[in-house]
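in:
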């Protein structure tokens, strides 16, 4: 049973605290950041524990506390629950979030209390070889495997982890300063939250990783939040044909709303390929499911010299097979896409500008708005493939 009274009184207190410049929003030692959160107790659990027993730790000098206002429910949350994505427990799940800075550490000058931000689950440190030399800041692990993996929360005297170092299924979370991107105050925070994972991942895969070319043919496997974002990325890139593939008929209709020119179940891929490409195969395939069978199908669906881009996350022990001859003979590019190949510091703003001018439909991606108490039915809807995105409002 969830009691909200504690949280309400905390929220009032924190607002008052923000006015105290010396404390910069941090509660006094006798007080705490007790709040509502959805916790994975054991890997394999099918339900999260919605509890008001979690406290967020105090920010260090380079940290911020974000009051989460909105957080999307992503398939990766389900994958952390079932062990597909390794996640030490107990953990506050959630990694696709936006909110308002509530406190900052003494060294933080980049953002201030009251700023609106998107949470970044794989932030660039800005200085390492991946950030600077390789120009792949999405692959920087310095911050994520460093300060983000230190438990952010506690319950009684015990540590509680944060999924991917983010832990957005909570009223507030603790983040290193690199893990927030400040946005304009007039951007709705529900819309902004989607950018933090699914939209950046899917659209970025099409735009940054696969680099879909104008006039090309694209096939997208999976029309959930990530797949719909990939479809929109391909549309923005100027693809001529965009084929959505999904098991769920309702998703096929959805996909067309976002720019798919064709939408089929897996059984009809060969037919649509014959119709569009004469059987040669598509220029690009984007796998947005995380299943080894559809990863292999995506590779098969592209033409000689085409690009198969793997966006979905499968289990570490699952394998995909390729013939040693076909890799040479077909000259296909097989590329993984991690967080849409993004530099969040510029890409989040680019996506928000596309949204602002009506070129990226984010509002239409929100299937329903829910409260944290509805998280378990929401996770079940994700497992059933019924939704594009559900956004929790705190
Ligand atoms: N063939 C076709 N479609 C499938 C199949 C399949 N074998 N299995 C699932 N689907 C469809 C579902 O019906 C659903 O519409 O794939 C879609 C997946 O969407 P979501 O569950 O909303 O997942 P999403 O959040 O988009 O994430 C997709 O990207 O970031 C990763 O971890 C994430 O691996 C996951 C993937
Ligand atoms: Zn995600």
């Amino acid at each position: 049973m969830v009691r909200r009274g504690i949280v309400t009184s905390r929220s009032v207190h924190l607002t008052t605290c923000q006015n105290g410049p010396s404390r910069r929003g941090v509660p006094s030692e006798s007080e705490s950041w007790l709040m509502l959160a959805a916790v994975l107790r054991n890997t394999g659990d099918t339900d999260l524990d919605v509890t008001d027993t979690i406290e967020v730790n105090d920010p260090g000098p380079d940290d911020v506390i974000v009051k989460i206002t909105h957080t999307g429910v992503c398939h990766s949350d389900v994958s952390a629950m079932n062990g597909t994505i390794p996640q030490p427990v107990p953990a506050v799940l959630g990694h696709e979030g936006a909110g308002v800075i509530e406190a900052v550490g003494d060294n933080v000058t980049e953002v201030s209390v009251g700023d609106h931000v998107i949470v970044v689950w794989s932030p660039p440190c800005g200085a390492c070889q991946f950030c600077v030399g390789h120009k792949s800041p999405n692959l920087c692990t310095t911050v994520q495997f460093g300060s983000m993996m230190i438990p952010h929360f506690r319950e009684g005297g015990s540590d509680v982890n944060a999924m991917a170092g983010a832990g957005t299924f909570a009223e507030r979370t603790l983040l290193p300063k690199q893990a927030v991107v400040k946005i304009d105050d007039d951007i709705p925070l529900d819309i902004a939250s989607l950018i933090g994972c699914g939209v950046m991942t899917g659209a970025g895969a099409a735009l940054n990783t696969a680099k879909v070319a104008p006039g090309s043919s694209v096939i997208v496997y999976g029309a959930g939040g990530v797949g719909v974002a990939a479809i929109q990325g391909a549309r923005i890139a100027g693809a001529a044909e965009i084929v959505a593939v999904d098991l769920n008929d309702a998703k096929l209709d959805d996909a067309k709303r976002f720019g798919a020119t064709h939408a089929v179940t897996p059984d009809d891929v060969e037919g649509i390929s014959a119709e569009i490409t004469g059987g040669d195969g598509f220029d690009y395939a984007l796998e947005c499911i995380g299943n080894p069978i559809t990863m292999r199908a995506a590779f098969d669906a592209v033409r000689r010299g085409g690009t198969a881009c793997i966006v979905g996350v499968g289990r570490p022990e699952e394998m995909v097979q390729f013939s040693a001859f076909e890799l040479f003979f077909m000259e296909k590019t097989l590329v993984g896409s991690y967080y849409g190949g993004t530099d969040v510091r510029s890409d989040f703003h680019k996506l928000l500008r596309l949204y602002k001018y009506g070129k990226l439909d984010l509002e239409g991606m929100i299937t329903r708005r829910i409260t944290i108490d509805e998280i378990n039915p929401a996770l079940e809807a994700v497992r059933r493939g019924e939704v594009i995105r559900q956004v929790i409002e705190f």
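note: Residues 1-24 have pLDDT under 50 and may be disordered.
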